[in-house]
Amino acid sequence: MKIISKWMGVVLLASSALFTTNVMAQDLKKPTLEDLIPGGETYRFAENLYGLQWWGDTCIKPGIDSLFAVNPKTGKETLLLTREKINQALEQEKLGKLNHLHQVTLPWAEKTQLLISLPRNYVVYDWKADKIISKQALPEKAANKDYNIASGNVAYTQDNNLYVNSHAVTNEPEGIVCGQSVHRNEFGISKGTYWSPKGDLLAFYRMDESMVTQYPLVDITARIGELNNVRYPMAGMTSHKVTVGIYNPETQKTIYLNAGDPTDRYFTNISWTPDAKSLYLIELNRDQNHAKLCQYNAETGELMGTLFEETHPKYVEPQHPIVFLPWDSSKFIYQSQRDGFNHLYLYGTDGKLIKQLTEGKWLVSDILGFNTQRKEVIFNAVDALGSSNFAVSVTSGKRSLPFNINTTTEGVHKGELSASGTYIIDNYSTPGIPRKIDIINTKTFKSINLLTAKNPYQDFSMPSIEVGTIKAADGVTDLYYRIIKPADFDPNKKYPTIIYVYGGPHAQMVTGGWQNGARGWDIYMANKGYIMFTLDNRGSDNRGLEFENVTFRHLGIEEGKDQVKGVEFLKSLPYVDGNRIGVHGWSFGGHMTTALMLRYPEIFKVGVAGGPVIDWGYYEIMYGERYMDTPQSNPEGYEQCNLKNLAGNLKGHLLLIHDDHDDTCVPQHTLSFIKACVDARTYPDLFIYPTHKHNVIGRDRVHLHEKITRYFEDNL
Q: Using one digit for the tens of pLDDT, what is the confidence trace for 540-570?
């Protein structure tokens, strides 16, 4: 994408100048972990406008006590109503009160009505009439709440069952869950209920996990530890079975799609036709290399047809449901990586391809909506370091310039489109701007600034950040790196270096956003006298399918080779002490940290691996089998990538950190590796965080980073 690529060179040249220390730096204090880490008592973050939204084509800006309407043409703000007025109406009905207005929405463009989400109620309040129009009570344990603005129907779950308007839709035994996200949130799935356009039918997932092996986790908060079993299908083992139901609230009847035996199949990306007569979804085989777009009759549940199929020798990974054109229900947009990058394809409901709408060596990340008048699709696109918002004409295929062209062409942009597609709220950051929010006209590109956040660390001594590229281990591919130097950097000194690594799919560490994606701990350690380095190796996100799937069937191998190229680059720098190189990462980054310590023991002196995957045979099916196949079909790959087999190679200092309630990367990974090290007579260190899952959150997160810091201070 040439539009975005233009500014990449600017980022590379200019970012070295960002955050540089002025002559008064020695008089400024350095931020602490409490300042830099979420959960810290003095955590500093960029100012934001919470709850910013559209009411038709009028921008709504909620505050604590007041709700303002912003004219997108002029930027003029008008007071719409106050929290006091809303609370008077709520208290009259004994519904409690709001502490702020960030939890209200205005989903009805033609009505003066608010939707208020309370812990135990959905409330619709008409501010012009000053009265509550409707209220929908919810039980205390209601979860996965899904309110439909067209009908006022609300779905929710309690324990493992689904309810609609207080009526029990399902009555399932233990081991079967309904109305919740399935397939462990892979394939773009983030919820379990899907209302039809008019809200009179509800599609939902039913997941039978009764055949899935239970994994034991222990709750240590009880005096006698209590067993907490979770259903965890490990690679190559028996998986759960998913079916899709359709519930009619009027008749209180449910039918299930007749998709045949759901064994070893995934059902993803559910979408309704505009007339709600049929339901579309993508069916994927367990090998995840064959996807089918299927259409089902919403009344009978019978298969109406398979519109088309998509295959790949490695894997197909559908992430987005089809989206129908609002002006032509006989056409829809399908997203695919078939040409190597995720792009938009226009299809007819007969399954025939009409045209490819976008193309190039960049990715469509999301469809934001439509401009019906101009027959345009509005979308967000990603290119290496940055992202921006664009429109493409369905008729001509012509793509617009980025909507932010008059403000900045660099940075990481997110967009929220107005009802007509005439305006977009552009929320973005650049390496030197923590957050900026503009309203932009999608035709004229005229913009109105709503917020330019101040640097939350402007009164602190901050390190310098640079971004550049090196070649991957294949000698051809460009890899982006970020290097952070201490605020008092002395080019004549030799500094220890810590590599922060993730390296896996669906993650990008080096960006064109605020501080080039650097984390608070990176800033902290640089100011303590370390060079901090991060490299997005092959296998990571936003560089296309070939860049990602080069790691197929041997996770951690090619990624490690690229990280070693990063070390070679570091050793070429006169200020890096090549004998003091450490590495830290979490989850996939924990796997990478451990693998680098074991495969390259002469390079890495110290490592801290958090929540590491040690043996891919212990990891869950959906993610693990996509990238590794099954242990039965890829025994060599699983053997090669099993870090227990390399336990005897450990020479440096390695700290493993794991959460005792980790249900994503179960504690067996770390514990089995410790046993392998005992057998091999090597000596890693271990730290456990009780009561946490796959990451350490809240106040304990500061403790975590202090623990990591001390380990590097003691050993590097």
A: 999 999 999 999 999 999 999 999 999 999 9
Which of 321, 354, 386 delimits the end of a domain? 321
Plot region of 64 (φ>0 → left; ψ -120 to 50 → alpha; else → beta)? alpha
The mean per-residue pLDDT over the stretch 320-334 comes to: 98
Average pLDDT for 199-216: 97
| Domain CATH code at residue 205 | 2.140.10.30
Q: Do the beta carbons of residue 355 and residue 333 sit within 8 Å?
A: no
Q: At residue 5, what are phi and psi to the nearest 5 degrees?
A: -60, -30
Tokens representing 327 are 């002006």
Q: Are 569 and 589 found together in one domain?
A: yes
The C-alpha atoms of residue 425 and residue 416 are separated, in whole angstroms, by 5
Q: Is the pLDDT of residue 523 over 80?
A: yes
In a domain, 33, yes or no: no
DSSP state of 299: T
Q: Which residues contact 282 (CB under 8 A, 6 or more apart)?
A: 187, 267, 268, 269, 291, 292, 293, 294, 318, 321
Residue 563: DSSP 8-state:
H
pLDDT of 14 > 70? The answer is no
Q: What's the confidence (pLDDT) of residue 26?
A: 57
pLDDT tens for 61-91 read 999 999 999 999 999 999 999 999 999 999 9
**C-beta separation of 296 from 278 below 8 A:** yes
Write the DSSP symbol of residue 567. H
Residue 662 is a catalytic residue: yes
Choice among 662, 669, 692, 705 that is catalytic: 662
Q: What is the CB neighbour count within 10 angstroms for residue 456?
A: 18
Q: Which residues of 602-615 are buried (b: 16+ CB within 10 A; e: fewer)?
A: ebbbbbbbbbbbbb
Q: What's 693's domain CATH number?
A: 3.40.50.1820
In-domain check, residue 708: yes
Tell whether 238 and 332 lie within a shared domain.
no
Q: Quick check: is 3 in a domain? A: no
Mean pLDDT of 108-131: 96
Q: Is the pLDDT of residue 24 over 80?
A: no
Specify whether 587 is catalytic.
Answer: yes
Outline where 18-82 has alpha helix (H).
Answer: 33-36
Mean pLDDT of the chain: 95
Rounded-to-integer distance, Cα 443 and Cα 447, Å: 11
3-state secondary structure of 233: coil
Distance CA 601, CA 269 (A): 44
Average pLDDT over residues 3-9: 41
Which entry of 102, 290, 694, 703 is annotated as an active-site residue?
Answer: 694
Of 470, 458, 466, 608, nearest to 532 by C-alpha is 466
**Spatial CA neighbour of 489 closest among 517, 531, 534:** 531
pLDDT band with cut points at 50, 70 and 90 for residue 27: confident
- The range of the structural domain enclosing residue 209 comes to 159-321
pLDDT in tens, 250-306: 999 999 999 999 999 999 999 999 999 999 999 999 999 999 999 999 999 999 999
* Active-site residue, selected from the candidate residues 196, 239, 271, 587: 587
Confidence of residue 404 (pLDDT cuts 50, 70, 90): confident
Q: Are 409 and 433 in contact (CB under 8 A)?
A: no
Distance CA 711, CA 387 (A): 36
Structure tokens at 240: 């759960």
Whole-Å CA distances, 6 to 32, 118, 130, 655: 36, 46, 52, 42
Burial level of 268, CB count in 10 A (0-12/13-18/19+)? buried
Using the structure block, give the residue that is written with the tokens 């008729």.
Answer: 395
What residue has token string 């305006």? 423
Q: Is the pLDDT of residue 25 over 80?
A: no
Number of domains the chain contains: 4
